[in-house]
Amino acid sequence: MEEITALAKRRGFIFPSSEIYGGINGMWDYGPVGTELKRNVREAWWREMVALRDDVVGLETSIIMNPEVWRASGHVENFTDLMVDCKTCKKRFRADHVKGDQCPACGNKTLTEPRAFNLMFKTNVGAMADQSSEAYLRPETAQGMFVDFKLAYQTARKRPPFGIAQIGKAFRNEITPGNLIFRSREFELMEMEFFVPSDDEAEGLRWYRYWVDQRFSWWLNLGVQPERLRKHEYEGADLAHYSSATTDIEYDYPFGWGELEGIAHRGCFDLTQHVNASGKDLSYFDEETKAKYLPAVVEPALGADRALLVFLIDAYEKEEDRTVLRLHPRLAPYKVAVFPLVRNKPDIVELAASIEKDLRPHMRTTFDDSGNVGKRYYRQDEIGTPLCVTVDYESLEKHDVTVRDRDTKQQVRVGLDQLLGYLNERLA
Ligand code: ATP
After folding, report:
1. Most informative mutation of 140, 263, 306, 311 for ligand 1 (most atoms within 8 A of CB)
2. Tens-place pLDDT, residues 335-368
């Protein structure tokens, strides 16, 4: 993790938030290269979950919602960790992380009784700072899909089975943020609520299994090493009270196996809660069959930041003479880097600059004329750029360039008139 953290900072993937003021625990910024990677992670998910399907639509709901939403969903009451405080050193610990009655930090036996600590951030809306203006920063995006369920299916003219997907920020006042962006206090969720065409348990389970398989394949298709992925299916008392089946996709992080994504069969729990609390009928009425029902829901949910971390860790490889990120081309921050072989030959620099500019509308590119070519390759390998194009002396006469492959380091000469087609083919 130390190596990944150092690389992430050195190359502009991830910075500590507000570092010049000493940072703030559990908050992170994405640098220039990290921002590109994050966009590609979101895009890879949206493409698979929404764009390539005809049964899922998108939604963007507000971060601050009517606080009644969080009472109905159970978050006000139940979204808590049990905590103990040390009266001597004032540190706070998760009760399940403390053994015996001694403070893990100072050793004194001055711990309070466990108290429920709600993970939701509170804020006030409007000028008044009293209880009537109290609101929460959302700890998940899912509730937006439930409360807008009816508006979404009516306006999109969808009938179950269909899903609503959302990517957006979520906030949790985690007690133990850490491992870089693995667990942070502000993060981005990518969630999809899939509404099953009945409240029937068996039908729900069928879709649940379908989504577990779909989601598992997504990771494999983006190049994650199969031996570092596994499914963990919950049973009995470990299941949330409303869920009849839940699977976590887990990854073998440098700090051990941990959750990467959760797929839950949530039954009719959420819609039922909102029907009861709002008094509004959220059931689906099927014009054709005249059936009226509250659909059961299957939810795949993952953090975009945690996904990004896994892609970084999984792609990271240290070789004898270089560090290389073997990122899938769809995820790589830059697809192609263009270099002039030397800086002091205006014709070469100009040709390289114009090639890079011409490629821009087609793929994310970067230009580099600093240091020598070896150093530039090294830098691009470290940020995972799949292909490097070098313009040299011969290029001026022969109208061709060298294209160098990140993974094999092999170089081939390609004519300028074929360059775009060649690059597209290699990146596909
Ligand atoms: P954990 O038990 O690890 O706290 P959770 O089971 O509460 O997580 P969910 O509510 O199921 O997590 O969230 C779904 C997904 O959101 C997780 O699989 C993870 O990818 C991501 N996620 C959850 N909490 C965080 C966080 N604090 N920082 C970054 N990503 C998170």
Report:
1. 306
2. 999 999 999 999 999 999 999 999 999 999 999 9
Average pLDDT of the chain?
95
CA–CA distance, 397 with 170 (Å, rounded to integer): 55
Which atom in ligand 1 lies closest to the alpha carbon of residue 259? Answer: 18
pLDDT at 56 over 90: yes
Q: Is 305 in the pocket of ligand 1 (CB under 6 A)?
A: yes
Cβ–ligand 1 distance for 174 under 6 Å, the answer: yes
Q: For residue 182, how far is its CA from the centre of ligand 1 (angstroms)?
A: 9
CB burial readout 312-321, b (16+ within 10 A) else e: bbbbbeeeee
Domains annotated for the chain, with CATH where assigned, are 2-65+137-314 (3.30.930.10), 334-427 (3.40.50.800)
DSSP-based helix, strand, coil % in the chain, nearest 5: 35, 30, 35
Inter-residue contact 176 to 94 (CB < 8 Å): yes
C-beta 333 within 6 A of ligand 1: no
